[in-house]
Amino acid sequence: MQLVRVLDFIGVGVFAVSGALAAGRKRLDVVGVVVIATVTAIGGGTLRDLLMNRTIFWFIDPAYLIAIFAAAALTMLYVRYRHPPERQLDVADAIGLAMFSISGARIAEQERLPDLIVVVIAVITGTFGGVLRDVLCNDIPMILQRGRIYASAVVAGTSLYVLVQHAGLNRDLASYGGMAT
Amino acid sequence: MQLVRVLDFIGVGVFAVSGALAAGRKRLDVVGVVVIATVTAIGGGTLRDLLMNRTIFWFIDPAYLIAIFAAAALTMLYVRYRHPPERQLDVADAIGLAMFSISGARIAEQERLPDLIVVVIAVITGTFGGVLRDVLCNDIPMILQRGRIYASAVVAGTSLYVLVQHAGLNRDLASYGGMAT
Amino acid sequence: MQLVRVLDFIGVGVFAVSGALAAGRKRLDVVGVVVIATVTAIGGGTLRDLLMNRTIFWFIDPAYLIAIFAAAALTMLYVRYRHPPERQLDVADAIGLAMFSISGARIAEQERLPDLIVVVIAVITGTFGGVLRDVLCNDIPMILQRGRIYASAVVAGTSLYVLVQHAGLNRDLASYGGMAT
């Protein structure tokens, strides 16, 4: 359970950065940036918790929201002084994807759902925040445009994770790292 | 209960075809086609289950997901050799709409909700998958554009269904068939 | 509890007007106007109830839906004879925002959630209907475009509300009125 919280925390942070970068590129104002950062960060985990009928993860601990606001603020500051290349958005997305996918898979596993369902929930948890971000920014979701890289990575990674189960968590993280590049 | 599963199954299959056709038209790659097919197929039923606080229908049985993947794969194969006219997408949509609407109506009825709510839940169950498909493809939802045909049919069909109640299921199916053309 | 219902009722009515106006501007037909009006009106409260794991508010009482249909019909009639300036949409939005935000805040408070979460749920309840309306109409959500006015108002208003708690409800309503102009 503790590990799930750590994964959620890192996922929330990097997706907030990814959301803030995307909103900045659309030239939205401060409120728009914070809203998009928040939606991107909590979208996947919130849908996971809704589907699994669990208490929404950020209800339990306001620290998630504070982390998002801090990450969005730091991103806005950073962008003011340096122009981030598109690559940064991709890397932030890939890390968030990996964190949320594994947290989704672990929670689905605890409920003893079939393996195929575990993989689908992992994919939903990992990708839904980014999809919401792109829909709100009026783009076709990035995951569909460059699907081969992202969605395939998360499907492969989570399937591998289900195979090697609990013992293989480190190997799984490593496999994500490899695929993300 | 058994009937609801059969309706959900057919609905899932034809909506997967409709989603795959729409994604193919947007020239998305294989992953994009599968994602859109899945979202279209499970969107309506998932929202219905979320609203009714039931266990999500595809959690219970992975066969739904396998059916979606199979339908999407067959659609992609078919499209490679023959060019489907727009009409196919419409017909697939209409059948899925009818299946999911009735399954939504039956479940809402079992909860002894007021008739008006039953109709609204039926409409949501029938249409939400297609709406998600169109939002993700960055179109204005088809149901709104050609609302007279689709949404009216489902409203009329479900209202009729509620009127004739359980005894009238066959008549209801017939009425959908008539309206869909 | 009673107050929450009154707030929901007013919110539903004005958001239905706002949705119908937006759909009319996109030249959607009658079904499209009713669908958009309904989604705008129940979107925020439905998401609030889903997140809080409560029974969806319009399941309990079909009167909400009747109010929406009446509001949409009256709006369509009104628009046929007079051309509403953009200002009306803004005002309807601001009132709905205020009603739903306070109803969201009150419900979150009853669950003894932390103050920061209460504010976020209030913002979600107040804004989600309008966001859905804009996404379905294929626009970038209004709240993000003119975020300074709307989102800031609801954040400030709800924070104030949390500070002054139950005793301060009238002052809160007043503060919304002031900010909306």
Task: Describe what this molecule looks like in 3D.
The structure is a homotrimer of 181-residue chains. By secondary structure, chain A is an all-alpha fold. The first copy, chain A, has one domain. Helix content of chain A is 83%, strand content 0%. Chain A is built from nine helices and no strands. In chain A, helix 1 runs parallel beside helix 4. In chain A, 55% of the residues are buried. Chains A and B meet through helix 6, helix 7 and helix 8 of A and helix 2 of B.
Outline of this structure?
With 181 residues, the first copy, chain A, is an all-alpha fold. Chain A has one domain.
| Biggest beta sheet attributes of chain A | none
Strand content of chain A: under 5%
The first-to-last residue Cα distance of chain A is 29 Å
Give me the number of helical elements of chain A: 9
Number of domains of chain A: 1
User: What integer is the average pLDDT of chain A?
Assistant: 77
The helix/strand series of chain A, from N terminus to C terminus, equals HHHHHHHHH
The SS-based structural class of chain A is: mainly alpha
Number of strands of chain A: 0
Rounded to an integer in angstroms, the radius of gyration calculated over CA atoms of chain A is 15 Å
pLDDT < 50 runs, ≥5 residues of chain A: 166-171, 177-181
Q: What characteristic shape of chain A results from the CA principal axes?
A: globular
